[in-house]
Amino acid sequence: MCGKEVSSLSNASATLYQQASFALLALERTPAVARSLAEQLVQALGAHPVWMEAEAHDRWVAAISHLPYLAANALAAVTPIEAAALVGPGYLSTTRLASESEQMMMDILANNRENILPMLSAYRQQIEVLEKALQNNDRSALQAQFHFGHEKHEEVLEKHRKGIQA
């Protein structure tokens, strides 16, 4: 998983795949020699091969790639132009994906919508929990949600680090 929010040859990078996770989809009919060559190619690029089934790939990229694009796009869409004078690192990092190629994302979303829709629904539920806590001025509910999000983030990152080191 790697990429940039900008495309074109002038934005190419020789180190794009360095330390990236690279999904390889397991097919029963794929010979062992082809699997080995695929792994060698991925490693030559500096990436970490991760073997998985196609269905798992589609579910997981909906969570870690497609939903973040939608969230970044929605955040950018509701940002008042007048706030531009105060834009800082937080806004830039959370909305960076909104600069992705619209056509590429339209194609991705159309081809993986059955996995993206449940993720979008779960995300909406999390936003509603935050909204309700704010409406009720419920600091303990906010704290609990922040803690849950923080812990989940750390858990995902730890598993990611362990997977890369394996």
From TrEMBL:
<dbReference type="Pfam" id="PF20463">
    <property type="entry name" value="PDH_C"/>
</dbReference>
<dbReference type="InterPro" id="IPR046825">
    <property type="entry name" value="PDH_C"/>
</dbReference>
<dbReference type="GO" id="GO:0004665">
    <property type="term" value="F:prephenate dehydrogenase (NADP+) activity"/>
</dbReference>
<dbReference type="GO" id="GO:0070403">
    <property type="term" value="F:NAD+ binding"/>
</dbReference>
<dbReference type="InterPro" id="IPR003099">
    <property type="entry name" value="Prephen_DH"/>
</dbReference>
<dbReference type="GO" id="GO:0008977">
    <property type="term" value="F:prephenate dehydrogenase (NAD+) activity"/>
</dbReference>
<keyword id="KW-0560">Oxidoreductase</keyword>
<dbReference type="InterPro" id="IPR050812">
    <property type="entry name" value="Preph/Arog_dehydrog"/>
</dbReference>
<dbReference type="GO" id="GO:0006571">
    <property type="term" value="P:tyrosine biosynthetic process"/>
</dbReference>
<protein>
    <recommendedName>
        <fullName>Prephenate/arogenate dehydrogenase domain-containing protein</fullName>
    </recommendedName>
</protein>
<feature type="domain" description="Prephenate/arogenate dehydrogenase">
    <location>
        <begin position="1"/>
        <end position="164"/>
    </location>
</feature>
<dbReference type="InterPro" id="IPR008927">
    <property type="entry name" value="6-PGluconate_DH-like_C_sf"/>
</dbReference>
